Amino acid sequence: MRLLVINWRDKKHPLTGGAEIHIHNILSRLAGRYGHNIHFMSNGSGGKLPSKEEYDGISFERFGSEHNFNFLAPARLKKAVKEFNPDLVIEDVNKIPFYSPLYLNKPVLLLVPHLFSSTIFREINFAFATYIYLAEKLMLPVYRRCHVHVISNSTREDLSAKGYRREDISVAECGIDHNIYYPSGIKAKRATICYTGRIMKYKSIGHLILAASKVVKAVPEARFVIIGEGKYLGHLKNMARKFKLENHVDFPGYIPLGAKVELLRSSHCLVYPSIKEGWGLSNIEANACGTPAIAADVPGLRDSVDRNVSGLLYPYGNVEKLADNILSIITDRALRERLEQGAIRWASKFTWDQTAAKFNDVLKTRYADIYN
């Protein structure tokens, strides 16, 4: 098939995250293993990225920036449809929808990691949050006749509750690369708790700082490592200073993949305290490295944790319970070793090959008349 794909960012964007990793791993396999012809449109980070590029079997077209991409997209999409003549348009909703069914005379598949809904008001100013909130509200009448592909059962339930037909929603969880993420069997001598991901307000990493202030009272040598960058980083550093945790909490910012994997392998647990996610890719990456995950019991994160097998869940925002869970893992060796083994087994179920195969099956069954 000829597939025209649009997403706010691609894998090489400076702000790339889990959504970009997800779509790229699917598309590269659709091109390489299943022979699909793929044209990918995303923003060029204000000219910092090449306007045209080809790699991993995908042709990329970039334009605009984070601030104007959605306004430029309709005209560029219409032009791409004329020039590329796709069989199917895949719209990855990873910020604001592009409403492509309104102006493209092509079938559209909607790919949804998750919708922000009211949680967006926790992240950005009221005016822009209202814009995104209303943009999501308008999606149902626009995409009602489109097939929707999601990355967790929680997102399917969320969309179903919003009025999307369950029979039009397919699910394929994210995979990981097991050639990169695998255990070493060696843990740090000092009890180490980590977080990896973007530093955003809705990720609720402040809860981990609060929990750290309680954990170090019981285990003074405990070390917390918060990997990533984002606009909320300064606030977290101020919190750490406020609670006199400078010797316990490290903020190395962005680190290379190899260093990140080594941290996941040597850590005693990973914590993911977000209020809502589509999935918890960091949980599975940590699990594959033999490290249990502690996550808030919220949509998306609960899907990526096999409760009491690959890790522990706690009520969102309950800092006392989060601290208790951390202390349980770092002080109870038998529990930790049981969770480490369960984590490895759980993570082995998720591969990008499987994710791409499920997506290709959706193309075969839902678009049988144009699949070729």
Uncertain runs: none
Task: Give the strand content.
Answer: 15-25%
- Let me know the number of strands: 14
Give the helix level as a range of percent. 25-40%
Describe the sheet with the most strands: 8 strands, mixed
- Number of helical runs? 12
- Looking at the structure, the CATH topology of the largest domain is Rossmann fold
Descriptors for this entry?
single chain, 372 residues, alpha/beta, Rossmann fold, 2 domains, 8-stranded mixed beta sheet, 12 helices
What does this structure look like?
By secondary structure, the chain is α/β, with parallel strands linked by helices. It has 2 domains: 190 residues, Glycogen Phosphorylase B (Rossmann fold, 3-Layer(aba) Sandwich), CATH 3.40.50.2000; 156 residues, Rossmann fold (3-Layer(aba) Sandwich), CATH 3.40.50. The protein has 12 helices and 14 strands. The strands form 2 sheets. It has an 8-stranded mixed β-sheet, with helices on both faces. It has a 6-stranded parallel β-sheet with strand order 11-10-9-12-13-14, sandwiched between helices. Helix 1 crosses helix 12 and helix 9 packs across helix 11. It is globular, with a radius of gyration of 21 Å. The mean pLDDT is 94.
